[in-house]
Design goal:
Layout: E1 17-19, E2 29-32, H1 45-50, E3 53-58, E4 70-73, H2 77-88, E5 97-102, H3 107-118, E6 124-127, E7 132-134, E8 137-139, H4 148-160, E9 165-169, H5 172-176, E10 187-190, H6 198-201, H7 204-216, E11 223-227, E12 243-248, E13 255-262, E14 267-273, E15 276-282, H8 287-302, E16 326-327, E17 335-336
Parallel strand pairs: 1-2, 2-3, 3-4, 5-9, 5-10, 6-9, 10-11, 11-12, 12-13
Antiparallel strand pairs: 6-7, 7-8, 13-14, 14-15, 16-17
Length: about 325
């Protein structure tokens, strides 16, 4: 892609990549001087140039400039980074149904449950803590929510591979660092909020505010789904511009599990969904996994997938690694990872 198609009055320069990590070797790339908690990208411009950057997007005054490199000064580097990444990768999030799941616990489980249920109907990818998966591709994870260029690049590869949907774990740090600002979400899911990441956010108020901003910025045509039983569940969606649906166990909700029978190798419950009831039997165990399953069911049903169409699948989920994973090699006792 030409640089002058990304920035007005820029040279007719061929751009082959984007980066904010100066250690990456990316020939003919644009380097964005992003300021992080510990480091400032402005300090690593020379390293980025050595590793292939031919254009520098920056905000602070620079003492030195390489005459062979194009420099573009902007007010907000991260905002421009998001805009450029979306254009450079041809807006991949607009070509798939994107499910974003955020919360302290359950992100990996809910995203994988959605993927496993939906993948039988339409090709679905996954990005998160466990891995990056789409089609026959399975890659090691990057960050829970990857950096801007990595995230758009992965979504672009998914589109190229024929994916029609993607489930994405949305971390509070990813939200705070604006990694998802140019991603178009169709469904946003909230699981819960407990004490975590306070080394980064400082207080629960800041942590909550980061999560809430994800829902505040969902487009009007999106759907927000929240845990009605969590103390933060209703507050986190109170300023949503889009439709809000709830799930839960203890409080009335759009999707509610009642008459729950927890067993060592399965769970049975009644799912009350608006004006219908369904008997659900699943190989998932533990009460928190019923919350995760309710979140996944409500996300899929909100996008028009009939509950009847995946009821049988609920009884034989592929186990998610390390998430109440049962180990059965014939031993006379229960082992759970």
């Amino acid at each position: 892609m030409k640089l002058n198609s990304l920035f007005e009055n820029a040279p007719d320069l061929e751009i082959q990549g984007l980066m904010s990590d100066s250690r990456k070797k990316r020939p003919n790339s644009i380097f964005f001087c992003v300021k992080g908690m510990m480091n400032d990208g402005h300090r690593f411009i020379s390293q980025a140039i050595k590793n292939g950057a031919v254009c520098i997007v920056y905000s602070d005054p620079l003492e030195e400039m390489d005459p062979s490199v194009t420099y573009i000064r902007v007010k907000d580097v991260v905002k421009v980074y998001n805009q450029v990444a979306d254009i450079f990768y041809n807006s991949p999030s607009k070509k798939m149904v994107i499910f974003g799941v955020t919360g302290t616990n359950g992100k990996s489980s809910v995203t994988n449950l959605i993927k496993n249920l939906l993948n039988e109907k339409v090709p679905t990818g996954y990005i998160g803590t466990i891995s990056i998966e789409y089609g026959t591709v399975k890659l090691p994870p990057l960050l829970t929510t990857p950096e801007i260029d990595d995230l758009h690049g992965i979504l672009h590869d998914m589109v190229e591979a024929g994916m029609k949907a993607c489930t994405l774990e949305v971390s509070s740090i990813g939200i705070e660092q604006h990694r998802i600002d140019s991603i178009k979400f169709d469904v946003g899911v909230f699981t819960n909020l407990t004490h975590d990441h306070l080394d980064y956010h400082g207080t629960m108020e800041n942590y909550f505010a980061a999560k809430k901003s994800f829902f505040d910025h969902l487009p009007e045509e999106a759907i927000a789904i929240t845990n009605a039983d969590d103390p933060y569940g209703l507050a986190i969606v109170e300023d949503c511009k889009c439709k809000v649906l709830t799930y839960g166990i203890n409080k009335p909700a759009d999707y509610q599990a009642v008459d729950i029978q927890l067993q060592k190798d399965k769970t049975v419950f009644t799912l009350k969904c608006i004006d219908k009831e369904y008997r659900v039997e699943t190989n998932l165990v533990a009460l928190f996994n019923i919350y995760n399953l309710l979140a996944a069911i409500s996300a899929l049903h909100s996008k028009g997938i009939p509950i009847e169409s995946f009821l049988m699948k609920l009884n034989h989920f592929d186990q998610i690694e390390g998430r109440m994973e049962r180990i059965d090699v014939g031993q006379p006792f229960n082992v759970i990872v």
